[in-house]
Amino acid sequence: MSLPLVIRRAARVEFDEAFDWYERQEIGLGVKFADRVQATFDSISAMPELHALVYRDVRKALVKPYPYSIFYRIRGHRVVVLAVFHSKRDPKIWKSRV
Fold this sequence. Notes:
Belongs to the RelE toxin family. The chain has three helices and five strands, in the order βααββββα. With 98 residues, it is an alpha+beta fold. A five-stranded mixed sheet has the order 1-5-4-3-2. The chain starts with a strand and ends with a helix.
Protein backbone atom coordinates (compact mmCIF):
# COMPACT_ATOMS: atom_id res chain seq x y z
CA MET A 1 0.00 0.00 0.00
CA SER A 2 1.43 3.38 -0.99
CA LEU A 3 1.49 6.12 1.60
CA PRO A 4 1.16 9.81 0.76
CA LEU A 5 4.20 12.00 1.35
CA VAL A 6 4.15 15.24 3.31
CA ILE A 7 7.26 17.30 2.58
CA ARG A 8 8.28 19.64 5.36
CA ARG A 9 9.12 23.22 4.38
CA ALA A 10 12.82 22.84 5.33
CA ALA A 11 13.11 19.76 3.10
CA ARG A 12 11.49 21.64 0.23
CA VAL A 13 13.94 24.52 0.65
CA GLU A 14 16.87 22.07 0.62
CA PHE A 15 15.54 20.45 -2.54
CA ASP A 16 15.04 23.82 -4.25
CA GLU A 17 18.56 24.94 -3.34
CA ALA A 18 20.08 21.70 -4.65
CA PHE A 19 18.03 21.90 -7.85
CA ASP A 20 19.19 25.47 -8.45
CA TRP A 21 22.82 24.55 -7.76
CA TYR A 22 22.74 21.66 -10.25
CA GLU A 23 21.05 23.83 -12.89
CA ARG A 24 23.79 26.44 -12.50
CA GLN A 25 26.41 23.74 -13.09
CA GLU A 26 24.76 22.52 -16.29
CA ILE A 27 21.39 23.23 -17.88
CA GLY A 28 19.19 20.17 -17.38
CA LEU A 29 21.23 18.69 -14.54
CA GLY A 30 18.78 20.07 -12.00
CA VAL A 31 15.96 18.31 -13.84
CA LYS A 32 17.91 15.03 -13.72
CA PHE A 33 18.42 15.54 -9.99
CA ALA A 34 14.70 16.27 -9.52
CA ASP A 35 13.83 13.09 -11.44
CA ARG A 36 16.02 11.01 -9.10
CA VAL A 37 14.52 12.68 -6.03
CA GLN A 38 11.02 11.94 -7.36
CA ALA A 39 11.97 8.31 -8.04
CA THR A 40 13.23 8.06 -4.46
CA PHE A 41 10.00 9.62 -3.17
CA ASP A 42 8.04 7.07 -5.20
CA SER A 43 10.09 4.23 -3.69
CA ILE A 44 9.55 5.57 -0.18
CA SER A 45 5.81 5.94 -0.77
CA ALA A 46 5.50 2.42 -2.19
CA MET A 47 7.65 0.71 0.45
CA PRO A 48 8.15 3.08 3.38
CA GLU A 49 9.70 0.46 5.67
CA LEU A 50 12.31 -0.62 3.09
CA HIS A 51 14.94 1.90 4.12
CA ALA A 52 17.02 1.58 7.28
CA LEU A 53 16.29 3.30 10.55
CA VAL A 54 19.16 5.68 11.24
CA TYR A 55 18.05 7.75 14.24
CA ARG A 56 15.11 7.03 16.51
CA ASP A 57 12.20 6.47 14.09
CA VAL A 58 13.85 8.30 11.18
CA ARG A 59 14.73 6.41 8.01
CA LYS A 60 17.23 7.28 5.30
CA ALA A 61 16.85 6.75 1.54
CA LEU A 62 19.75 7.50 -0.79
CA VAL A 63 19.24 9.62 -3.91
CA LYS A 64 21.62 7.78 -6.22
CA PRO A 65 23.92 8.77 -7.88
CA TYR A 66 23.78 12.14 -6.10
CA PRO A 67 25.34 12.82 -2.68
CA TYR A 68 21.90 13.38 -1.16
CA SER A 69 19.69 11.43 1.19
CA ILE A 70 16.06 11.78 2.11
CA PHE A 71 15.32 11.52 5.82
CA TYR A 72 11.75 10.66 6.72
CA ARG A 73 9.39 9.21 9.31
CA ILE A 74 6.31 7.10 8.98
CA ARG A 75 3.48 8.82 10.81
CA GLY A 76 0.23 6.90 10.83
CA HIS A 77 -0.91 6.54 7.23
CA ARG A 78 1.57 9.00 5.74
CA VAL A 79 5.28 9.65 5.32
CA VAL A 80 6.76 12.91 6.58
CA VAL A 81 9.91 14.02 4.75
CA LEU A 82 12.19 15.86 7.17
CA ALA A 83 15.17 16.60 4.93
CA VAL A 84 16.63 16.35 1.43
CA PHE A 85 20.16 16.45 2.72
CA HIS A 86 23.65 16.64 1.22
CA SER A 87 25.97 14.03 2.71
CA LYS A 88 28.67 16.60 3.56
CA ARG A 89 26.39 18.67 5.80
CA ASP A 90 26.34 18.32 9.57
CA PRO A 91 23.71 15.69 10.50
CA LYS A 92 22.85 17.70 13.61
CA ILE A 93 20.87 19.95 11.27
CA TRP A 94 18.36 17.28 10.19
CA LYS A 95 18.39 15.65 13.64
CA SER A 96 17.19 18.93 15.12
CA ARG A 97 13.96 18.47 13.12
CA VAL A 98 13.07 15.20 14.85
